[in-house]
Amino acid sequence: MTNYRTKYPADGVCDYIFYDSMYKNHRNTLPGVWAEDVLSILTKALQTDPAKTQFGMGFAFEHRHRLIQDLANTSLKHFWDYKVFHFGILDCPAHGTKQTDMDEVFVALKALDDSVQKARASGNTSYIVLGAVSHTGAWNNYYRDKFGGVFKPDLFISLGHQLRGDPQRSSCVVTPPIILEKPEGLADAHDLYDAVRALASVASQAGGPRFSLSVSMAGRWSKLLPTSKAEIFSACEKGSPRWRFFGRYTEVCKMPPYSTNLLYDVQRYAMRTFDPGTQRMFVYDDEKALCQKLCLAKANNTDVAFGVAVYDLDYEDTDDTCSDLNSMGAYSRFQAVSNVAKFLAHHFTDPSKLAACSSMFP
C-alpha cells in the first residue's frame, strides 16, 4: 500500500500489510522526515492486534545503494516502537536488470537481516522478504544459487504482475495486469507461468524460503493507435509524462462509454473497456480473472506450495462503488483472491481440482 487515504481492510483479513514505497522518488528515507503515508501505516500498525494482522516496510529497488549506506549508520528501532518488524525489497524487475544489480539487493537484504537481530533477540518475529521477477532459466538458477549460498529471505514473492505501464515499454502493447501466457514477440514482459516456474525451480533446492505468487489490483490505461482494434495485445501509443498508466476500475464502472463497453475477454482472462472518442483503453483483472489465472497457474505446479501476495491494494474498490461488479462488497477482488489462496493451499492437490477451483467465481 502507498496511499494514506486508502481504507484498510478489516483486521485479520490480511495476514501482513506492507508499505512498499520507502525511498521511492527519494522520499521517506530512514534518516529523513517521513510523509503522511508512512505515518498512517505506522499508526495503523500500532493500533492493530498483531495476532490478526502484522505490518512491514518495503524499500525501493532503485535506491538499494542508499539503503545499504543508511543501514550502516541508522537503526530500524523506530519501526519497532510501532510494532513493525518485517522488511524487504518487493519490486525487483528483470527487464533491464543485471545480475550485478541483484547482487546489491542481496547485500541490502542481508543488511536488513542484520539490523533486526536485536528485535529477534527480544522475542519478536521478524521476516525479510524479497519480491522479484524471475522469467528465464538463467534468472531461476541465479535465485536458487543465491538462496543456497549467499542469503535466504524468509519469503520469496515471484512477481506475476506487470510492473511497468504499457506505454513505458520499448513497444507499447495493451496488456492486463497479469498476463497468463504472453504471446510470441511481446517485449519487456513476463507472464504468470514464468512466475510459477520460478517458484518450482527454487523449490527444487531443499531448505529454501517460503513462497508467494503476486497479483495486482491496479488497472492499466493505454491509448490505442488509430489502426488498432480495441483488444488486449493491440498496439498502443508510447506514453508521455502527462499520462496515467495505472488506475482503478471505480473510474470506469459508472462512467459511459466505459461502463457500457465493459467486456470480459475469455481468451485473455481479463476485463477490458474502451472509449472510441479518445481511443483510451482500460484493462483490469476482476474476481473471475484473478481466480482463473491463479487456478491455471497452480494446475501446472500442484507440488509447489505458495501463497498469494496482493500488490497495489490501494487500487481496490474500498467502498463498493462498483457494486454491480462486486460479488462480496468492498474489497471484493481481494476477498476473492483470499478465498482462492485458501483453496490452493488446502484442496488443490492435483490437476483434477482445476474445475472446482475455477468455478469459485464463474
Give a quick set of tags describing it.
alpha/beta, TIM Barrel, 362 residues, 10 helices
Characterise the protein shown here.
This protein has 362 residues and is of the alpha/beta class. It has a single domain, classed as TIM Barrel, CATH 3.20.20.80. Helix content is 29%, strand content 18%. It contains ten helices and twelve strands. The strands form two sheets. It has a seven-stranded parallel sheet. Strands 8-7-11-10-9 form a five-stranded antiparallel sheet. α1 links the parallel β1 and β2. α2 runs parallel beside α4 and α6 packs parallel to α7.
Give a summary of the structure in a few sentences.
By secondary structure, the protein is of the alpha/beta class.
Uncertain segments of ≥5 residues (pLDDT<50)? none
Give the strand content. Answer: 15-25%
The CATH architecture term is Alpha-Beta Barrel
CATH class: Alpha Beta
- What is the rounded Rg? 20 Å
The spatial strand order of the largest sheet comes to 1-2-3-4-5-6-12
SSE arrangement, N to C = EHEHHEHHEHEHEEEEEEHEHH
Distance between the termini: 29 Å
Helix content: 25-40%
Number of domains: 1
- Biggest beta sheet attributes: 7 strands, parallel
Number of helices: 10
Helix-strand layout with pairing:
Layout: E1 16-22, H1 36-47, E2 54-59, H2 64-71, H3 77-80, E3 84-92, H4 99-115, H5 117-121, E4 128-132, H6 137-149, E5 155-158, H7 192-203, E6 210-216, E7 219-223, E8 246-247, E9 263-265, E10 270-275, E11 280-284, H8 287-299, E12 307-311, H9 332-346, H10 354-358
Parallel strand pairs: 1-2, 2-3, 3-4, 4-5, 5-6, 6-12
Antiparallel strand pairs: 7-8, 7-11, 9-10, 10-11
Helix pairs in contact: 2-4, 6-7, 8-9
